[in-house]
Design goal:
The protein has about 40 residues and is mainly α. It contains 1 helix and no strands.
Length: about 40
């Protein structure tokens, strides 16, 4: 059971990082002047 939960958490973490990275880049490109960044959007 612990292995399954650990694997799920790792997969979720990787997916979240891969999905949030492009959004951060887009945010920086769209608003280079202001440093607004939404964190904890899950």
């Amino acid at each position: 059971m612990r292995r399954i939960s650990a694997a799920i958490s790792a997969i979720v973490g990787t997916i979240v990082s891969v999905v949030t990275l492009p959004f951060r880049v887009l945010g920086r490109l769209l608003t280079p002047g202001r440093g607004r960044s939404r964190r904890g959007a899950a």
